[in-house]
Amino acid sequence: MVGHVFLYNAAVREVKRYLDDGELGSVYYVSFVRTNLGPIRMDVNAAWDLASHDIAIGNYWFGREPESATAYGGAWINAGIEDAVFATLRYPNGILAHLHASWLHPRKARDVTVVGDRRMLTFDDLNYTEPLRLYDKQVTDTRTAPAFIDTFASFRASVRDGDITIPAHHAG
Length: 172
Prior knowledge:
By secondary structure, this protein is of the alpha+beta class. Helix content is 20%, strand content 39%. A hairpin with a 3-residue loop joins strand 3 (84-91) and strand 4 (95-102). The protein is globular and about 50 Å long. The model has no long low-confidence stretch (mean pLDDT 89).
């Protein structure tokens, strides 16, 4: 049995509540980055080792599996075992999820960005005290925005750049 341990992570569950409560509005896309330098494995590639966690999180957040998936990887250290993988998943309702999984990367990262039509959210699983940030940012209603954004002023008028909230986090 696969142990999707991140489904029991308090911050992952908190994001699920935000999504279910409509805090972010309709989700456009999610970006998952799970990288590090090593450990290089011989039994599975970076997708099976790392991206499986992000797929489990996406399935949990959206309550279903993706409708389609594409992935490309590169095997540089050991032939036939991809050290880095880039994948795109398409969930129902037009939600895209992009995954970057690599054990051949100079920086350890466990970053997730969720972009909705009302708000945006980041989840940094390496930040143990403040893993979540909510951004009150959005593109304004396109029905009232100019048909063509041709100046910096019209661009600035088409986006809302509000507060960043760091919710209190209770591990467990």
